[in-house]
Amino acid sequence: MTDAIFPDLRDAAVVITGGGTGIGACLTEGFARQGARVAFLDIAEAESRALCERLEEETGCRPLFLPADLRDVAALRAAVAQAADAHGPAAVLVNNAARDDRHAVEDVTPEFWDANQAVNLRPHFFAIQAAVPAMKAAGRGAIVNFSSTSYMINGGGFASYTAAKAGVIGLTKGLAGELGPFGIRVNAIAPGWVMTKRQRDLWVTEAGLKAHIDRQCLKQEIAPADMVGPCLFLASSAARMVTAQTLIVDAGSL
Fold it and tell me: What are the CB-based long-range contacts (under 8 Å, 24+) for 79-83?
């Protein structure tokens, strides 16, 4: 977790998708420790409620957990509205939620493809659509979309996911141009291989991790907390003139 303090984030209304586990839980904690009013959406109820309890005990501030399946656009819109009712309109939106399910080309059905995009790309747009009217009215706002370096490294086994993550960059640049005149900044973060519990449980092998770290300039594992500082920076006034950019956080593997 970063030691940096961004004063303008204190009391800022922040909405985070997928904020209950993995990278998202670190983002929720990072913004909460800045004194922001954090609301987060997730489907992992037990983990999310435990996170809220811990942060309330440690910081005195309890994030607002909003159970929502991001594949349900109506539920997503309702959650963003509920967050605004509780904390005021979002000044910061972080689109973090994703699932990197593996799939072979020959096994992908239209139904699988659509369901995968409905987690990894579609909610980014509709969360932004829900938050933007209030940002326009305020004349400012910061949106941070999480992409991935996975689409940059020519890796196999999850083509729908990498297509979505490339799409996040296109969405970021297109909306930065459209929303910039209203004072709204839109940027992306592309993490490298971050050692979340999910990654360790499903994909990490000793040999594979060693080979990946050998390609990095910084010879350490990337932790979920390493995404917090970059996200806080892009959300804050320190990045006042930064928009339409992708910040790669991969320990120098590219």
Answer: 79/39, 79/41, 80/15, 80/127, 80/130, 80/131, 81/130, 82/39, 83/13, 83/15, 83/39
Q: How many domains does the chain have?
A: 1
For residues 43 and 65, is the Cβ–Cβ distance under 8 A?
A: no
Is position 22 within any domain? Answer: yes
Catalytic residue list contains 161: yes
| Distance, CA of 153 to CA of 7 (rounded, Å) | 37
Catalytic residue among 151, 161, 193, 233: 161
Identify whether the C-beta of residue 110 lies closer than 8 Å to the C-beta of residue 201.
no
With cut-offs at 50, 70 and 90, classify the pLDDT of residue 39. very high
Is the residue at 182 inside a domain? yes
Which residue matches tokens 């928009």?
Answer: 243
Backbone angles phi, psi at 81, to 5 degrees: -65, -40
Where residue 130 sits, what CATH number does that domain have?
3.40.50.720
**Cα torsion angle, 207, 213, 219, 223, sign:** negative
Amino acid 252: pLDDT: 97
**Considering the domain boundaries, does residue 254 fall inside one?**
no
Please enumerate in sequence order all residues whose Cβ is within 8 A of that of 189, keeping only pairs 6 or more positions apart, or say none: 144, 145, 146, 147, 227, 230, 231, 234, 246, 247, 249
Kindly report the average pLDDT of the chain as a whole number: 96
Average pLDDT on 174-200 reads 96
Starting from the edge strand earliest in sequence, which strands make up the sheet with 37-42, in order?
A: 64-67, 37-42, 13-17, 92-95, 141-146, 184-191, 246-249
pTM given for the model: 0.96
| Residue 1 confidence (pLDDT) above 80 | no
Residue 107 lies in a domain: yes
Domain that holds residue 29: 7-249
